[in-house]
Write a structure and sequence with these properties.
- The relative contact order is 0.12.
- This protein is mainly alpha-helical.
- It has a domain of about 150 residues.
- The N terminus is likely disordered.
């Protein structure tokens, strides 16, 4: 997989950005340091002015890439899910149905390791943002319009891939899309609980969200 992905460019829906940040050194610095800053101070406290001070650029230059910090969060979220999708496709394509869904659950729920192919993006830190801030990308009044405009197409595509894997195992299962979306959202939630509300989750250093999701999904499909 490493050789296949060595020249990979992650594609994000074009409507999310004004100018592709991958097209310039400044754009890549905006992405690199926005990830670090959001993780450090939280998305609510994050501003383009603070980011500009860190990267040594004025606020207006950041607006040439993103019209708002919400669009920047959508970009980070879309990039993350596209990166996950590539792993999902390459690591499951030759597997049989039962093994495929188990491997897929592992890929979309596991703890993240940094990928050296993208030097300006720390995937470990980006994963922390996804756990803590991802819901803010779609819990807005504009979600229906943004959905119609295709902002969440990559996320939905992963859900559909998982749904199809579920149907391949149990064609008569009534809730394949609900179970597929639960795998994604439920794993993020369990990672959050493990870090912040340990009394209301069984996940810990010895029992991971991946373990829980495999147990939930595989036992559901057996019944």
């Amino acid at each position: 997989m490493d050789s296949l992905l060595s020249n990979l460019k992650i594609s994000v829906p074009e409507k999310i950005y004004v100018k592709d940040p991958e097209s310039s050194d400044l754009g890549k610095r905006i992405i690199e340091h926005s990830i670090l800053l959001i993780n450090d101070i939280g998305f609510d406290s994050f501003t383009f002015k603070k980011l500009g001070n860190i990267i040594g650029s004025n606020e207006s230059s950041i607006y040439r890439y993103f019209e708002s910090k919400h669009k920047l969060l959508l970009y980070l979220s879309s990039w993350y899910w596209a990166w996950i999708e590539y792993q999902l496709v390459f690591e499951t394509h030759s597997l049989k149905a039962g093994n495929k869904i188990e491997k897929a659950i592992e890929i979309v729920t596991r703890s993240i390791k940094e990928d050296s192919k993208f030097s300006h993006i720390n995937e470990v830190v980006l994963n922390k943002i996804m756990v803590n801030e991802n819901s803010k990308s779609f819990l807005t009044k504009e979600v229906d319009k943004e959905n119609k405009d295709g902002y969440f197409i990559i996320y939905k595509r992963i859900v559909h891939r998982l749904r199809d894997m579920i149907i391949a195992i149990k064609p008569n299962y009534e809730y394949p899309s609900s179970l597929a979306s639960t795998i994604l959202e439920g794993s993020l939630h369990q990672h959050f609980l493990k870090d912040h509300f340990i009394s209301i989750t069984d996940c810990n250093n010895g029992l991971t969200p991946t373990d829980f999701m495999k147990n939930l999904v595989l036992n559901t499909l057996k019944s």
